Every structure is written in structure tokens, then in C-alpha cells.
Amino acid sequence: MHWKLSISLFTFWLCPMLLQGQNTISGMIQSESGEALPFATVYVEGSTNGTTSNADGRYQLTFDAGPATIVAQYIGYARQTQTIDLPPGEHATINFELAPETLVLKEVVISASEKDPARQVIRNAIRKRKYYADEVSAYTCEVYIKGLQRLDKKPNSLLGMTVTIDTGIVYLSESISKLKYLHPDKVNETMISSKVSGNNNAFSYNQASEMRINLYENSFFIEGLSERSFISPIANNAFLYYDYQMAGTIVENGLFINKIKIIPKRKTDPVFSGYLYIIEDSWRIHSVDVKLTKDNGIEFLDSLSFNQVFAPVDYDIWMPISQRFTFKFRAFGFKGSGHFTAIYRNYQVEPNYWQPRAKDPKTVTEIPKKVAKKSQKEPAKETLLSKEDFSNAVVTVVDGANEKDSIYWASVRPIPLTEIEVRDYQIKDSIGVIRKSKPYKDSIDQVRNKFKPGNLFFNGYTHFNSYNRRYFSFPTLVEGLQYNSVEGLVTNLEFSFQKRTEQSFDYTIKPGLRYGFSNKKLQAKVEVTKMINLKKRLILTGGLGRYVFQVNEQEPITPFSNSFFTLVRGENYMRLFQKYFTYFGYQKELMNGVLLNGKLSYEQRETLENTASYNLFDKTFHPNTPVNQELAATDFPKHQTLTASFRLRIRFAQQYIERPDRKIILSSEYPDVYVSYKKGINLLGGDTNYDLVKVGSEYSLRVGQVGTSKISAQTGLFLNTRRMYFPDFHHFNGNLTYIRQAEGENQFQLLDYYPYSTQDRFLQAHYEHHFNEFIFNKIPGVRRLNLQAVGSVNYLTTPVLGHYFEFGAGIEHILKFFRVDFYTSVTNGQHSRAGIRFGAGF
């Protein structure tokens, strides 16, 4: 192993030297006491060609031949420069020993209203915030990202499943991307190379476009980190959230830089703590060293540190040249840490306002408002980027990005690998072949395939054949045993056999066997799903059999809930019927954001009667045929139906990540729109003839610090009802249990299941607002519980029902996972019912 490591290191240091016309320097960055300074910033003065030191304090920098001044800086230490002039192709070792930063006292004028000179510095920075936020019209740059995650502790099992992952480095990846930006919000990234330790076929999940943290914005949202937007320490309303202290002033390259300590006024607000460095007179951000903790509302992490260093580029504009996230986590018996480091270089910048190109990077040109406005009205004829240079692909991974060899990475990698990282690449790349072998996969499967009692209750049982990528799954005991008034005790065994590719599933076969001990009927079915094209989301489905189904095909009540209320309360809420069926389904994304689903089915349907009577309270079950306000009797004779349905989901300006092997759908700032059509066809023995058209929309909206709103609406109309039966009605998702039904399409919490099903027109709307921590984090004592408030309104109208409203108020994140709501309903101005609903809320 030692000789392999030596060869790797030799190749690593040699390759950059072979680049013609370029010089390479390397060395150590440490303190005066000899302590290594990890992630220190090193760059060529007057350029954005830079790097950072690795976790051991070692750095490497390649630059064009000729004289150059090398800058090394580390937050908390004084900036140091060294001048070098090497012949082309030469390599030199330059070490830096940085002294602790020297804070000087500068004469300041403090008004009687200011407690600390830091407040006046921040006021000046806030005044310039909008100017610097809009300063750049467009830019392009190259971004190198290294991500590393370590696992220091793990449980042996979780929810009945064996944890097979090892401790140590569990994720190590590198990527190089071209990033382009057009003000105010156009961002595209092209990933040209990607490397993941131990998996040569994988693409890293590093994303430069997601690491764009801009403190010149009043607030910004980081997906997956928190449910709230974080407030910048120089936001317009920053004084409502922060206190400030002047830690001192640093003199650096002729600039006075104010070191400001930022202190949250309330530790539970979504704010930072740490230090902000502001340049005197220009009031720009020089660097950032801040931290977030669980108190600030971050999820899944114990802490997150954020470090950012700026440097001047063209037109006296300062841009980030290095950025780092360092985090620690602990949950469910797992404990670990990691970091993502980004190096930005080779900027091309187009200013938003006209200003002369300054020779002295220390000079800051103040732009008169008249000139700025004129420049906005009269843009330059030649622009760096235009809207035509951007698409809805936020990230595009080029073909072959994951096929670069070690020589390539040694020549382009700006941050040298540590010995631990070198060994991780070597070991995992070596054993990657072993891990793909049949003996290794069989040995892992032998452990995972051992049956444990927890499989019965939590996640069922899956038999793995990883080498052939075949998986056979069995249901949990809760899924396999049910009770209802029609069949009595039921064994419902729905299995799943799946064949996978490296990217996704290839096909899935789901057979099902169901037997009712009261009605003594055996049911059977089989359904197949086949992936045809992953990028176009082209999927074919089909199925046939005889089985029992709910009258509402959206299944508003789960079998577990129904079994509980049937046995314990004597309430048989689920209404069932039997059908012989065969169907064929089709799905394809016709164009970006337009997803088509189609289905053609032929069925023979029969009503079912109650055959069971047992329940704990010896209550008489209601008939299996529902009561409905539009239909005197909802039972129906045996009949056949031929049905065709189509559904278009339209997501305007849908963003996505485009990889060579798949398309990963992201969000859109616009509402989703749904259009569907269903037709009962009176052909080939089909006994129905009706037409139903529905239009709906869903939208999620972040409302600053107040939380997130979820809005949905749907309206529909039967154009033709010449011949139809009760299962063909439009049904609404009601709920009469104490268990809050999962958030889904058009859910009511107090509505009865079938009385208001309609064969006429209808309109329903749903609004739910999650206040996140906006309310409870301001209550002393309560805020430690991390509770979150939620409010909701549901509305439904049909010609027979009139106007129905539900109003709800609840608390979620109780013990991190649970939610409780109180609902009350009003029908045509009269109170209908009220109730409490319990559910998951995390």
C-alpha cells in the first residue's frame, strides 16, 4: 500500500509541472506556532486564480508563468504575501506562517444614539446592500467542489434493518463545473468532470448553483436545511434580529477592514452568529465566518459553519473566491461530520452599472444614480450573457464527466488530497471491483436476508439478490392482516418483485392474493410496471385479475385505520366492491414540464354485502352500500365498463438536473396545473356512457419568515351522464377517523366519505399554512420544544351540498414526528361537526 501511495503522490505533484507555460507552487500554511491551518485561502493577487489548503494545511496552486504575488489568508490571521518569478514550467515550494490578526483602534465618530461603532458600520453596509446586490449584471466562472462526509458512530440496526455501512469516510467526491449567472435569478451549471470515491459509474451530487450564498440578499432559503429563510446580518431589517460589537479593525493591503461580531438577539431566530468583515468606506463584505445551530432551526444537523472569502475582480467588483460549509450531525444512533469546499476562479464579470475599469483594485468607484439609471436604460451592445444562454436545466452533466482518470484529476485539482483521502480513493477504487463481484454481494445479502421480528411490523421483509439486481419483498403484518365488514378477517398478501438497473428500476411485478375468511372468497391479481426511458419518464403499466377495491379509487381510508375502527368502534367506513379487471397505462413527459398519463381499462363490477358481524361493542354494521344525497340507492347490478382516462400535469418553467442517464425534476416558481378527462365508452360490451372533465392546480409559497403556504384547487363537470353507476361518480376524500389522513390531493378531515359524491359540477379548494417556528420560537420555555403551528381552510361546493367549510388549527413537530389538529366544519352557515386529528408532522 505504501508504494501505491508514493506513486499516487508523485503523479499528483508531477502532472501540474508538465503543463506548458504554467508554474506550480505548493507548500504548507500554518500558524507561527506550527499549527496547520486547514482551508486557508491562497490566490494570485490581482486575479481570482486561487485555491485553499486541505485539512492538513497543504496547498497547491498553478498559474501562468511570469512574476506573481501570492496571497495567503485565513480568517483570524493576518494576510501574508510572497512575490515569485519562475521560468515557465517550474515548480517551487513556498510555505506561509501566518500571525494572528492585529486589531487596531481607529478614530471613529459615534453618535449619542449608537451603543457601539459596529452599528454605524452595519448601517453603512445596509445602505450599500442593494447596490452590491444588483452590481453584477452577469458573470461566468469555474467552480471546483470537494465534498467529504465522515461517519464516526453507527447503530447495528435501524427499524429492523441491518446497517451495513462502515464508519470512516462514507462520501468523498470532487467536481468541476462551469457556472453562469444572469441578474437577477438565471443560473445554469455545466458539470464537466465528476469523481466519487468507490464508484466510477456514479456522478457526484455536488452542485455549485446550490452553494451560492449571497449575504447581500435580505434573506435566502437553503433547500433541505431549514423550513425558514435565513436573515442576512446586513438585511434591511437586520437590527430587529442582530446585535453588533466592534471586535477591531484590520489593516490589509492599504484597506481598513472592520471585524464585526454578529450576535443574535434571539437564539431561536433563523440568524447567524460569528464574524463579518466589512471594508471601510466602500462598506463591502470582505469575508464571512459564521455559524448556525439547531436553535436556529436547521434540521438533521447539529451545527453548520459557513466561511466565505471575497477578492476584487474586474470593474472593482468583489466576488467569492472560496466558500466552505462544515457540519456535524447526530441522529438515530449515527454521528459524524463533513464539509463541502468550493473554489471559484476565472471570473468573467459584466457590471450592471457603467463604471471605468480601475487599475488599482483598492479603488472603489461610487456610481452617480443618474449614470446608473441611464446605463440600465442603455445597456452595452455586447453582453456577456443573455436569456438565450439559459435553459430550465439548472445543472447539466456532460457525457463522460465521470470517466476522467487520475492523471486528469491530478492536473486540475486545486486542493491537494490529504493522505487519508488518497488512501480512500485507492482502497475504495480497488475494492470497488470486489464489491461488484458475486461472492461479495452474496455475502452482504446473506446478512441482510436474515429475517428479524421487526420486519413484521416496520418495513416488511425483502430478499436481496444484489448481484443480479433482483429483489423480492413481502408485506408487513399490518398490511397482510386486515378486517372489514364485507370479508371479515382478511389475509392480503401483495408481494413485489423488482429488477433494477444501475440508474432505476427496470420492471416491477406485483402479484396479490387476498382471502376473506367470512365471505370465503379468494381474490388474485398481478400488476406490472416497465421503465422504457428514464429521461423521458416513459413508463408502461398493466394489470389483470379479480380483486376487492374501495368505491373511491383514491382510497380515502387506509386498511389499518378501517380495521381498527371496524373492530374497536363497530364503524365500517370502507365501502368495497369486487371487479374483474384488465388495464393498460402509459406515462411520458411530452416536453419539459408537460407530463401525460393515460389509462384504458375494462372491468366487470359487482356489489358486495356484509358477511361479518364481530366487533368489540357488538354493534350492527351499516350496509356496505353508501348513502348519497344525489342517488336514492347506490347499489348497482353486475355490469361491464370500458373506460379511457387522460391526465396532463403542466409545470411551467420546470427546472431540472440533466444527467447522461436521467433527468431529475426540480421545482418551479409557478403553480402546477392539472387537466384530466375521463370517458365511459359504450362499446365492446361497455355499459357506461359519461364524460368528466377536471381542472386543478397546486402551489407552494414561502411567505418570508412567516412560513410556507400550500394551496390547491380543483373544479370539474360531467358533460354527459347518459349511463353511469355510483363508482363512476366523482368522490371526495373525507375522513371520519381520529387519524389525520396523509397530506395528499384534495383532502378533507371532517367530511363524510360518500354522501356528497356527485355526478354534477363541483369546486373544492384547500389552503394550509405552516408557520414553521414563527410563533412558538418566541415563547420562553416553549421554544425549546421546537413546536410549529399550522392552520388550514378547506372548501367544497356542489349543487346539492351547497357550501361546506373546514377550519383547522394544529401543532406539528411534537417530539419531532407527530402532529395534532383541531378542526371544525360549517355547512351553509350551520355548524356541522368538530374533531381532533392525530398524525405525522415532521
UniProtKB/TrEMBL annotation:
Q: Say which domain of life the source belongs to.
A: Bacteria
InterPro entries of this UniProt entry? CarboxyPept-like_regulatory, DUF5686
Q: What is this protein called?
A: DUF5686 and carboxypeptidase regulatory-like domain-containing protein
Q: Which residues form a coiled coil?
A: none
Query: Which species is listed as the source?
Result: Marinoscillum luteum
